[in-house]
Amino acid sequence: MSALQGLDRSTSELVLIVDDVPDNLSVLHDALDESGYTVLVATGGEAALQRATQALPDIVLLDAMMPGMDGFEVAKRLKAQPQTAHIPIIFMTGLTETEHLVAALEAGGVDYVTKPIKPKEVLARMGVHMQGARMARQTRNALDAFGYASITVRAQDGKLMWQTPLARELLTQYFGSASHTPPEVADWLLRHLPLAQRQVEPPRLAIERGARRLTFRLHQQTGDDDDWLIVMREASDGAVIEAMSLSFKLTAREAEVLYWVVKGKINRDIADIVGASPATVKKHMERIFAKLGVETRTAAAGMALSRIRLLNPQFEL
């Protein structure tokens, strides 16, 4: 574990200060440290990106004008990465012309302070923006503690703004990438946004990969932005298939076929899923009927579903 990953985040909030002038860093570091913040510093753009990605600070104080990569480019890159896009950025600038201040906000800044830096002003501005970030973090931490993965998506363009490590892992497994919002999820959010805006929970989205299922639930809007927190949860029905096999004395393949019958699939669909021919699936069905003592798919599905719900009350079709 790196020193950055080992930082204690339980008792104080983490601030990243980015400035190429040592005196500016020193003044701000001392003021923030005395106010109870944990402080990281970077003197250039590349170092800032590295520290922000590793430590995920609660807020970034970013110098606009630096040699090499300037603050505007740093902000754009942070906002382009799902793991850092949610972090509030306050620009520190000696440029007071309107076009420079507009550029700071367009690059992703939520606010700016002008140089020479006044620590009290910086602390006051930070307080405003930290409150929303603090509430969002507490919500995400609570969800993580109960085993839920979560992502934040901007509704207007479907951009993936933030994700937990578990969410990143699941998105990669189900969709092959965690760098953007899956089209199915973006479409689902956009389609049901009117319900969510009326505080009516929309129907959940379910993505199936064999016996694994990933569900998406719209949790809440975050802050005043157009960002929505979506909770993901994976359910693997491999245990259900194994339990059916034991309960009804079925082979593993017969139990898998019966599982998909319960899910409403026809023989041709089941054949595609399990990698067999429709004729083979039909033979499996004949043996399932004999073992369950039934004559129809409906009866077999009803008996299996009753047994499944005894074993797993949260099972969803």
TrEMBL record:
Pfam families: GerE, Response_reg. It comes from Ramlibacter aquaticus. This is Response regulator transcription factor. The keyword Transcription regulation applies. Keywords: DNA-binding, Phosphoprotein, Transcription, Transcription regulation, Two-component regulatory system. InterPro entries: CheY-like_superfamily (IPR011006), Sig_transdc_resp-reg_C-effctor (IPR016032), Sig_transdc_resp-reg_receiver (IPR001789), Tscrpt_reg_LuxR_C (IPR000792), WalR-like (IPR039420), WH-like_DNA-bd_sf (IPR036388). CDD domains: LuxR_C_like, REC_PA4781-like. Residues 243-308 form the HTH luxR-type domain. The modification 4-aspartylphosphate is found at residue 63. Signal peptide: none annotated. Residues 14-130 form the Response regulatory domain. The keyword Transcription regulation applies.
